[in-house]
Amino acid sequence: MVYAREAQVEPGSIWIHDDRVNAVMKPGTKGFEKSGEKGSPVWVKIIPQDTAYARIESDLKESGYDYRVGNFGQSIWMSLAITMLPVLVIILVIWFFIARSVRSAGGGPGGMLGSFGKSKHRISSKDSVNVTFNDVAGVDEAKHEVTELVEFLRDPRKFQRLGGRTPRGVLLVGPPGCGKTLLAKAIAGEADAPFFSISGSDFVEMFVGVGASRVRDLFKQAKENSPCIIFLDEIDAVGRRRGGGFTTGGHDEREQTLNAILVEMDGFEISDQIIVIAATNRADVLDPALTRPGRFDRQVQVSLPDLAGRKQILQVHAKKVKMGPDVDLERLARGTPMFSGADLAAVINEAAIIATMEDKEHVEMIDLEEARDKIRFGRAQKSRRIEEQERVATAYHEAGHTVIQALLDDADPLHKVTIIPRGQAMGATFSLPEKDRYGYAKKYLLATMRVLCGGRIAEYRKTGDISSGAGMDIKMATTYARHMILEWGMSDRLGFVNYAGDDTKEIHIPEKDYSPETARIIDEEVRRIIDEAYADAERIINENWEAVVAISEALLKYETLQKDEVDKLLRGESLDKPTVADLISREADKSPPRTESSTSTDEDEGLGDVVPSPA
């Protein structure tokens, strides 16, 4: 208003709108010298008071200025356009992507959704597939069963001569790491054929219909490169039994993908020369339409290797590593029951790393044994500080296992015992099975349960208290007892009946197919078996307590005992080897002084099954 009174405002330029006043200053007005010939527009915010507008209008009238009150000239259509602009932009962006996807629906490049429909398979050409049956060990029966697939890819007319046909699909079934993928590659390598590989989970994405589109694209490219092999890893990701669970959006998408696989496999002709190989470790959950004759009509078991198979696998991987003269692969194979091919390969590789870190010229047997224990239980925690009271309890615990295992003929032979912590275990008692077990005799199970009970019994007699160290022993003993009663019919009261139920259902809902009275009898029988094993183990410990004490004291001195050393102690003989204190003293003389744990030692590792004692 000061400028208005001094006539420094352009006539007719004053607008009063909402909470502000706009005006244009005359050229040359003090403070607005840079405004130029057209003047400088300014605005002033009005403090919201009831009398503010009245005073402004009164002052403008006294100064003789014309003014306008209301909108600055912005029409209602302009306001509407400004409001709707963001919505229009969003609609245009969505329309742009939809148009691109429609253009790419026929397989054309550039579409966002079209790229999702392309298969994510990995293809290995004839030249790049350098795996043969010689590289696959430990699965001789499986190799023999798939040999005819190689002959079909090499000479399909050989099978047409008598009117026969080879299986369209082969299902490899087995635990992880047993060589299913390697076997499929070996088939392609022997047949000199391209190898298409894809995981079942790669078919499914967030968009509906993508899985089916990828299936069609995969089989289309396979037909263009025939003869070839299609390998579907983890087929259970899309091939689960239909109608076995709650229907969801993801469930429908999986069924569409499965239907596409079934349709494509039905469309095969003998002249296509395509073999579909799938792998799974859950064949029981696959849809029957997938495993019927004409599709995956042959199942090949790729199981964990037996003793001979483990030795063959170790020999294959040992060729790549410099081995010392003391290496005994057969002994190592005996000490790795239930190891898969991948586990055995990891043992060889880990042993090479251990030998390298110790600057050795070659891998020694002690390196292989340390690698085996490390893979199963974790690295030896030699620097871990343990209270003396806990070391004593652990020593007596392991001595209890050791004495019973050494004295029972039905248990696996003892191999070694140690109180050096590994992973969560404070100590371990190892055994070395003389042969692979494909079934469990009742005598063997009862003997194993006695061994499991021995640790708690010896620990309690020495310390007068119990600890959580027997947690895994209790769990394993209970598991054995329940299997004996529920599944294996080893109870005279319950007889030749299975009470375990059906564990092949896709959705596991707890259910009991027996009466409350039968459930009570089952609990009583489980309790009876465990109590009898515990009482028998307690009798053995009490009758051989001097041997338990001798082994415990030896463990506190040496921390690791081999079978021959345990046998000497059981005969009442003494051991003649360096103690832990001697080893620490020698190490201190060779190197600068450093703090050592009371559990540090050069462990003489061994092999075999184990009865762990977790902390």
Features:
615 residues, Helicase, Ruva Protein, domain 3, six-stranded mixed beta sheet, 22 helices, 46% helix, extended, disordered C terminus
**What is the structural class?**
alpha/beta
Largest sheet: 6 strands, mixed
Please name the CATH architecture of the largest domain. Up-down Bundle
Task: Enumerate the strands of the largest sheet in spatial order, edge to edge or round the barrel.
Answer: 5-7-8-9-6-10
Shape: extended
Could you estimate the helical fraction of the residues in percent?
A: 40-55%
Parts with pLDDT < 50 across at least 5 consecutive residues? 105-114, 246-250, 593-615
Beta content: 5-15%
| Average pLDDT taken over every residue | 78
Number of strands: 14
CATH fourth-tier homologous superfamily of the largest domain: Peptidase M41
What is the top-level CATH class of the largest domain? Mainly Alpha
- How many domains comprise the coordinates? 4
Question: What is the helix tally?
Answer: 22
- The CATH topology of the largest domain turns out to be Methane Monooxygenase Hydroxylase, Chain G, domain 1
Radius of gyration: 40 Å
